[in-house]
Amino acid sequence: MISTLLSRLRIWDGEHPHTGDAILVQGERIAAVGSSDELSADTTVDCSGLTALPGLIDAHVHMELNPDDRLPPAQTDLSVAAKARMRERAEAMLEAGITTARDLGGGAWLELTLRDAITAGEVAGPRLLCAGQPITCPSGHCHFWGGEAADTAQADAVIERQLDKGVDLIKVMATGGQLTKGSDPGAAQFDLATLTHIVQRAAAHDKLVAAHCHGTQGIHFAAAAGVSTIEHCSWAGKAGWAADYRPETAALIAERGTWISPTVNRGWQRYLEGRNQQMRERIQGNFAAMRAKEIPFIASTDAGIPGVYHHHLPLALPVFAQIAGLSAEAVLRSATSQAALAIGLHSVTGRIENGLSADLLLVQGNPLIDLSALADPAQVWFRGRPVKSI
Ligand SMILES: [Zn+2]
Predict the structure, then answer these.
(1) CB 237 within 8 A of CB 244
(2) CA 274, CA 270: separation in Å to the nearest integer?
(3) I need a surface site. Which of 82, 255, 304, 382 has the fewest CB within 10 A?
């Protein structure tokens, strides 16, 4: 098996700075983390000046969606050109240092085909976990993707269809969304009994559930039903966006250990630039209140929605740190070890540790001091192979 030693590095292992300065890559895996003076390999690469961290994880993307489209698609574009664009997105993500992503919805399972081609090594791209068609209520959020369900029997049918196609998890739209005309982001789309049924049904097939939630009632139901991740978590209500934070719901989230995937993309910079001071205060106040309850966050962007590009997670993380009031290290954990834990891949990736996949991002400087170091990777390794070299 071919081995490579990445030597004279600064290493941040996904949780903490590591005392070692070398990573031994053997085949697809990390074989050792230790000292440059003690480890050896077929090839040694001097990485002086670089910091190694685990490849990044974006917990919420849509490979199918074109960020340049201003409106949601009436139906999935099945053309050869559309499929080629999906592959281009995947390749750009990998080059940016995103080695794993969770796809939370499409209409025709094209992202599953892409996932399998990446796994087979036919296409360059990150490891993908895919949800297929999200379960939604009739005419509900993203109904155009085909996952409408009016009751538990219809929800079962949607789940069954996704399982047949080979999804990795189930996605449910627990509230309306902004992208779909006629759906109300503040309103719950399913009652607690239906959501609980969906989570149990998925669990019977060893699948986790990700729930799209803007409104507070939907957030509460999703946490109570036992979903694994709450997407967006916008605390929307009658008083407006981010204006309906409820301590009892946050307490439930903390108690259940539900992960929050707030989809803070780089465009949220607009809140930091002060044009909407009130909204900024509300959003930052909600994050502060959630932090006080030690609710765990994972990094995500909702890439594919208008203006949000698939390879921009590294640019979103500094914005996420400021919006959510997190240290650089906390944000890096949310995009590596914590994300891997949340999406069920902690025994595969998310840390620099013996036996895990050699998914590595090498950057100039120290991202623990300045997250902007992530913007221009020096090298990316995926499953033991270099993706991009200096
Ligand atoms: Zn989404």
Answers:
(1) yes
(2) 7
(3) 255
Residue 390 has pLDDT above 60, yes or no: no
Residues 311 and 211 in one domain: yes
Helices in the chain by DSSP H: which ranges? 80-95, 110-119, 152-165, 192-204, 216-225, 247-256, 269-272, 277-292, 313-324, 328-334, 337-342
Measured in Å, residue 276 CA sits from the centre of ligand 1 at 24
Shared domain for 206 and 86, answered yes or no, is yes
Number of domains in the chain: 2
| Residues 221-264: tens digit of each pLDDT | 999 999 999 999 999 999 999 999 999 999 999 999 999 999 99
pLDDT at 126: 98
CB atoms within 5 A of ion ligand 1 belong to: 302
Residues 50 and 69 occupy one common structural domain: no
C-alpha of residue 302 to centroid of ligand 1, in Å: 5
pLDDT for position 196: 98
Radius of gyration in angstroms for the set of CA atoms belonging to the chain, rounded to a whole number: 20
301 shares a domain with 235 = yes
Rounded mean pLDDT, 339-348: 98
Residues 243 and 258 in one domain: yes
Name the residue range of residue 49's domain: 3-54+350-388
Based on the fold, state whether residues 292 and 359 are members of the same structural domain: no
Q: What's the CATH number where 48 sits?
A: 2.30.40.10
Taking only the tens place, the pLDDT of each residue in 312-330 is 999 999 999 999 999 999 9
Quote the ligand 1 centre to 43 CA distance (angstroms).
42
Task: Give the distance (Å) from ligand 1 centre to CA of residue 386.
Answer: 30
Label residues 241-253 b or e (16+ Cβ within 10 Å = b): bbbbbeeebbebb
Ligand 1 center from residue 173 Cα (angstroms) = 9
Say how many Å lie between the CA of residue 376 and the centre of ligand 1.
26
